[in-house]
Amino acid sequence: MTESATTPSASRDTSRRPLRIVMGADTFAPDVNGAARFAERLSAGLAARGHEVHVVTPSVTHSQSGVFTENIEGADLTIHRLPGWRWYPHDWLRFVLPWRSKHYARRVLDSVKPDVVHSQSHIVIGRGLTREAVKRGIPVVATNHVMAENVIDFTTLPPIIDKPLIKLCWDDAKRTFDMSRAVTTPTRKAAEFLENTIDITGVIPISCGIDKRNYTPDLSPREHRRILFVGRLTTEKHVEVTLQAVAKLAPELDVHFDIVGGGDQRRNLEQAAQQLGITERVTFHGRTDEAELRAAYTRADVFSIASIAELQSIATMEAMASGLPIVAADAVALPHLVQSGVNGYLFEPGNADDLADKLRRVLTAGPEEYLRMQQASLDGVEIHDIERTLDTFEKLYRGEPLDA
Predict the structure, then answer these.
(1) Domain range holding 375?
(2) Is there a single domain that holds both residue 239 and residue 165?
(3) 238 located within any domain
(4) Which residue has the higher pLDDT, 95 or 368?
(5) Cα separation, 249 vs 254, whole angstroms
(6) At residue 238, does pLDDT exceed 50?
(7) CA gap 279, 321 in Å, rounded
(8) What would the mean pLDDT of 175-181 be, rounded to a whole number?
(9) d(Cα 189, Cα 210) in Å, to the nearest integer?
(10) 69: left (phi over 0), alpha (psi -120 to 50) or beta
């Protein structure tokens, strides 16, 4: 990370007063995904602490660009919606024209004059903001939510160029991160992945954080039949593996699988459920509002996630805060949330038989064993409290040392 990025302008005293923060996010409300949810909660939490937060993100349609006051997570934020263009191979993705990102960044920075820029994505908006902020002596904090390998799925380019394209993406990410005061990721595993992939050091793991007070665990004794997944229906989530496991369990345990979320794979997953003969045992709820989402967590008996590309998984933390045992793929960051045999089980990625076995263990657990797993999830989510996350980012913004 460059010296120019680590030294804020001498004229800025950011030690005590509320900060003026520009948050650059390639994805934000109304998008429903982990990176967007984190940016929303962080921005709203900072605003609730008295900071002035400006979010820079693509507009929902190209004609709806402008500067707006929007209520996000109960806080009024200033949202700079840059002209956004739909990426049609993806079901919801919008982007700002890359060759315009620096122009938009200059316009926002000249208008807002922030104390710090927080980039939530190094791809387009954060890339432009980082380069223009460094020119002005404005410190930048960067958070990585992206694995370049996942982005490739939606390029529609020939597979033969995937490898060199991934390298180009990571090389550009390194150049952006090297300009930042600090680089963060949601977990230690994700930090190690980033350090090994682009050869940087000092990546800081900071949980995305959740407010567990928003969730309602049901600890009463009851029959256990409902399996839940929450998230985008995309290829890296591997929801089809859970469908296969449900098919193995359905006649035996009378289970029902609730799927909350939308995505480009929904039609394929509906067809898979039909082919497996479990259509009546699977409900695709699509995207829901917060109240419906929280009710789905409370109603469920176990949360199942087969994804192999989670840098943290906010949905899994929400399930833990709802007192659910978790059955998760033993991949990337999920083992940081799930202790096998404690608050649920890990299964071999892609192995539907193993997943079915682990789901069966949870669903057939005796009342005392099931309650023990519920309590372990509630205890395990304590370290992911959003207030800790806000404390840490405030210190990074001010250039203060972090607690050991």
Answers:
(1) 212-384
(2) no
(3) yes
(4) 368
(5) 7
(6) yes
(7) 29
(8) 95
(9) 19
(10) beta
